[in-house]
Sequence to fold (568 residues):
Amino acid sequence: MRVRSVGKYAGAVILALWVLFPMYLLTAGAFSTQSGVYQYPKSLWPHWSTGTMSFFWDSAGVPTALGRSVIVAGITVVLAMLLGIPAGYAIARYRFRGKNAYQLSIVSTRAFPVVVLSIPLAVYFLQWGIYDSVYAVALMHTALVLPFVVLITTSVLAGVPVDLEEAAQVFGTSRLGAFWRVVMPMALPGLAAAASFAVLMSYNEVFAASILTIERPTLPALVLNALTASPDPYKFAAAWVLMIPTFVFIFIMRRYILGFGVERRL
Amino acid sequence: MSGRTTASVPADLQPPRSSPVRRRRPGWAPYLLLAPSVVYLVVFFVVPLLQGLRLAFTGEDGAWGLATVHELLNDPGFWSSVWNTLIMLAIILPVQLVLALAMSLLVNSKLRGSGFWFYVYMLPLGISELTSGIIWYSIFTQQGWLNSVLQDLGIISHPYIWLSYQHQLLIIATIVVAEAWRSTSIIVIILVGGLQAIPREYSEAADVFYASPWQKLWHVTLPLLRPTLRTALILRTVLAFEVFATVIALAGSSLSVLATKANNAYTQFQEPHLAAAYGILIMLLSLLSTALFLVLLPVRTE
Fold:
């Protein structure tokens, strides 16, 4: 029995190293001197330096592109939550005709890849005059994350006991008041998880962002466009900046992540 | 730590407390609450989808027909991008399933600090495929980490070129590694959810008959996990058709898949019709493989 549990821990450690070690290698690349990036053979403990990072930061358009990425993620998360929370509440709390059809169509959006949507949307956005703007990318990203936000908020709100909400109403609060003062505080961590997911998906999304922008790209789109022409220090520093938010947002999401598996209904 | 594990069980897997559904007649309320999301998804999902079909089946002059489809089939590199996509898919499905199964079984077994392991295994979920492509580029590039280590160990005497356009299969293998690293977490989510839904009695019954862990996995867990595995396979396949930035980061222009062809058609050649045709092809392949999994792996519904 003891041998088996040692094996289990060894397996867990090996799998954790498989996930973490490449992240360390990227960090070592992003925080060495620029010449250190080209050193060969490399040493696993580089001469730590901010040279590579400041070279990337001073490259054309990087700070503004990062700013745009943050704005796009901000608009996306606000829009998706505003649209998604009411829908999640309706599914979690009411029994009504068409509920299954709605849920099924929400789940089946997953079968339609972003590739199909971005090209026609680019044509529309050109006509509407918002092509190549943060709004174009944010509108697209909202369409991508909204189904997930609906699925997650549904499972979060279903977890808030309906009795408490009804009790608040018995004591004279309006339904909206009961939602705001009773349901919201209890659902907040779960809703924060849904929002984190929206932020990460938007911050990381590169296909639509590269289709929908030219002069005003988000950070991933800028990096992608420069990829074949840019030197390695630029790539490593860019990838590191794109990687960092995951540590924060996955931490916020960790207790709720399993709820994302609701897609198993498919 | 133990509190964290219980908290990670999603609400819909716990036994129902009181019925969460209101018994009184709902009237219009639910429809009003759903309306904004429905309108949004119609405008930004359904309409573009139809517009995509229209773009793919009209020519430059706007006339309906198969001109664009014809252009697609004769596009240089079209067939190789189809094959590359399918080969990549064929390798990645089994590799990732085994990896995800190992992670999920570990997370689900009574391991100390399971919250920590789960957090670590979930980290790649928040990493873009562009970042993952660059990470693995830093490993596989000629003066990268892999060659450094191999040379230090004396296995090679000069840097080996892993990412050469002459070895397409090798490049595909590196893409598979990068994808297995990045997107296994989403499969783990689905599998852990499925594992937690399996009643403990099955495992206890197997213990009564002194089943070995492997027998238990093969004869008890996997068959019960079948619906979940099917969902995981479907999702994995759909996601694989979208892999794009990883390919560009690792292969540059020396290898193309359907998604990179779609992007190039739009951004480099300004051909929205051709790009949409690639998009529609990817969609059809996604839907076709979903249907295939649904037919090939039937699940009995009680």
About this structure: The CA atoms of residues 3 and 115 of chain B lie 9 Å apart. Residues 1-23 of chain B have pLDDT under 50 and may be disordered. DSSP finds 14 helices and no strands in chain B.
